[in-house]
## 1
Amino acid sequence: MDAATAGIVLLSLKVAFWSVALSLPPAIAVGHLLARGQFPGKTLVDAVVHLPLVLPPVVIGFALLLLFGRKGPLGGFLEQSFGLVFAFQWTGAALAAAIMGFPLMVRAIRLSIEAIDPKLESAARTLGAGRLRAWATIVLPLAAPGIVAGALLSFARCLGEFGATITFVSNIPGQTQTLPLAIYTHTQVPGGEAEALRLSAIAVLLSLLALAASEGLARHTRTHAGR
Amino acid sequence: MLAVDVQQRLGTFELDARFASAAPVTALFGRSGAGKTRLVNAIAGVARPDRGTIRFGDSTFFDSVQGIHMAPEDRRVGYVFQDGLLFPHLTVAANLDYGARNRARPAGPASPIARDHVIELLGLVLLLHRKPRDLSGGEKQRVALGRALLSQPRLLLLDEPLAGVDSGRKSEILAYIEKLRDEFGLPIVLVTHAIDEVVRLADTLVLIDEGRVQAAGAVEEIMGRLDLAPLTGRHEAGAVIDARVASHDTHYELTHLAFSGGSLAVPRVIAAVGDAVRVRIRARDVSLALDAPQGLSIQNVLPATVESIRDESGPIVDVRVLAGESPLIARITRQSLDRLRLAPGQRVHALVKAVSLDRRSVGYS
């Protein structure tokens, strides 16, 4: 693998890693809320969370551009307050991927929490555990297989993110050009088919690895959790 | 002293229950769906009633007027749920230790319940490294009992601890509960729909039907009331008497019990002479005769006085008689009632077949 290809692969992995790492805590919170919460507007929250799954990715990318662009309301604020810039940066690619992978993660986590008998938490409370401790010692470990599966599914989705990314942060080699964007670029150039094919093979390999890891980890966690 | 007075509405079901008990074992007895579990959920704090108060000792668990709803983790109430609810991802040992690992709790009982003692008492040594999925129903219930005990509770709630346990294991777990009662001096609230569990374990009986407490009081008193027979179970209705073991007849394998109404022969029970026992005599096992009968296979012929008659204009009537100070209920046909011309105050003889008093009818108190 030449340096350019290695750079593309590493950037893709970096983007996917950070998008999963940063979206996991809110995904667990939202998954729990949807699984256990009873509040007005739950259907609305559910719909909004699932929006990235059904909207054209370009629309999400455009929305991010409006919100998080340097002149956008959130983008301007974040740059001034924290020096955090998303527009045309790899961080922006991570943000776009995180949003696109979010519904997959929430779904898996929500299903695994719904499968846990809420009375187990009640039992923990009667044994002296506070609300938070009961959650951390009972719900979290029992939901772990679902959380791991959701995170890896989202990781695989992030590796393949295209539409929202190219709309939001463009296609800048070395900065925002992840694997799918690089493949697209080569298909647009006469004689680029061979290179596109080579990168596609790498993409297939990475996706298979992520799925295999997801399967293996889920199995390990299941055994470990004794279910 | 546990004092409960709560109202809760859930859909069309209305719970409106009021009782107080200072007994070592209080039984909440009623049909499935009578509201028993809702009541213990409220006592444990895992459910919140709409209105009312729940007090235990000098703590207020719940008071809707004062806006008090103590968190379950602060009540120190051990709760053995109907389905055990062991934590599936933890070993038996970790399940048992779950309560002890929680934050320092408010002052525990004078003598904390020791881990080794509980493990030995409940026979859990060989199970410690297993996961809940590898346990039988009876083993799960024993672990659940141990787990609740080791959280150092000051009140223990048992919700149908014998549901889903095969009959062979039932008496074993009943014996464990008896040990808990005797060894730890921990007040127990037992939810059940089996009258033999009430007779064997409980001192105070709280009869619940359709969300309401229909009667509450000493087991003997409630069981001897004719008007409550439909609730305690039509088929199973009968009186409960307290007695002492007078002697054992090793040749015929009978035990003679002494009570205020005389002597009662029953198939041999495992108890020492002088031990207090409680016997449930089902109404359908008691016959009445005007004169002391001769040449009869029936062992127990008890002189008694008719006290009251419950006549619901069917073919069957219940007659309450007093043998000494102990009430007995006899279920006879209306025809017999008329033929014998039974009326309150009349002297009769109550006939009880010894074989009708099986091991399940005799409890140790």
## 2
Amino acid sequence: MKPVIEVHNMVKKFGDFVANDNLTFSVNQGEIFGFLGANGAGKTTAMKILCGLSKPSSGVIKVAGFDVYKQTEQIKRNIGYMSQRFSLYNDLTVRENFRFYGGIYGLSGRQIKDQTDKLLSRLGIIQSADKVLRDIPLGWKQKLAFSVAVMHKPTIVFLDEPTGGVDPVTRRQFWELIYESANEGITVFVTTHYMDEAEYCERVSIMVDGRIEALDSPDQLKKTYKSASMNEVFLKLARAPKVVI
Amino acid sequence: MHEIAVDIKNIRKSYSGTRVLNNISLQIFQGELFGFIGPDGAGKTSLFHILTSLLLPDNGSAVVAGYDTVKDYAQIRRIVGYMPGKFSLYQDLTVEENLKFFAGIFKTTIHENYALYKDIYGQIEPFRKRKAGQLSGGMKQKLALSCALVHKPQLLFLDEPTTGVDAVSRTEFWEMLKKLRDQGITIIVSTPYMDEAALCDRVALMDRGQLMAVDAPANIIRAFGQPLFAVKSDKMFPLPQALAVIEQTKTVYRSGEFVHYLNNQADFDPARIEDQLLKLGHAGITIRRIEPTIEDCFMLLMQNPLEVETN
């Protein structure tokens, strides 16, 4: 298996505050990697660095084979990003949203059309392609946002709490999309507060106070921490965090 | 004991032709910890706005602590505490200034009801000179809750207080709510996290403006009324498809480390699950009959349950 994210001794400081304290891990091609941690543990900081939006204080980090210090533009071209908050444009149609993002990622008109048709057919909503996004039900928007994030066939897609507030049926349909993409070789790097979703990942890391406290498959983590569920593992590791002053 | 704190009758609300609340009727009792459970778009926030007199219903009525939400809006605003889903304190005021501001509005002081929120405010009190905009998420939440309690409300409305909050902080927040409930405050909370339903005395399951069930969590689980199986094997990715083709399959879906399986036949024999999986070369198979969770109940009650994939 080929690693597509390689992180060695990553440190990120803001003044005296150490947000990422010597992180070392790698993620393989086609893997579904869960990136968990309490609020304020340092997840967002690390994700920003991996997406080429922020520079680390020190460490050797490669994403899709590119260096996070010097090759951030190449990184951005080879990743997809989706979050619960930053999503699609409500006043554009579904197809226009695809065209806009496809254009940003430098796809040709032909490629945009092919990918739009393929992804919309896969979702089964090709008939709604010319509807304004505002009129699309909420659950569908999340699935569309995911499809847009992978339309340029990125090496890695970063998903930041992609299923927050989504109904339980749509949440599962969303994970089917994740599985399909991973099956096609796209690496999925995902954060979530739903602990049942941690079980859907091949490996999970849990950050506590800027450090990676545990990293393993869900099964192995449950064995190591003698827990019945990932929720229990998480509570054992992340409970009673230090007060940040 | 069962005095009615909130009486909702036939509430309807539409925004430009889209119905967000469809004929909602229910009662909440005094001293209850009551949860509205549902995803985005269920109508939870609109209902909270109606109950706190911030929005007029198109139809129906609601009585909160004996006051009509339309006629007696001024009284209602005096006796309820409301913590909106979006952080809505003054970011450029300090922690202490925010609390004083709310105390002033309600014509009370920080000290008068301090005992009620001491445990919560105490945790952020060391930062009382810090601007609210510079607090961490967890601290903002505690300040907002303190401000909602400063006038010792009879009822406390909390709109999605735990959304986007990690599992540890969520557990702590619910512990705070239980303590407030034990002090006699009626607490009405909304959440998209189904697992939080179990922490409420009673819940309303909501989806797309509809009330699907109102009851104690244990009763909702009892009403599920059909055998549910949790299945696991060495090949989890194709497992749902493998089970979907079993005759009379109702639904198959992933749930944590298992796949949950429901069959239409009341006398369904789970040995058929094993047969099917062995035939397809699965190993390490576990099949257990399990008690449904609130999430399983919610999915069963939803109008368009997960379609069984049979490709």
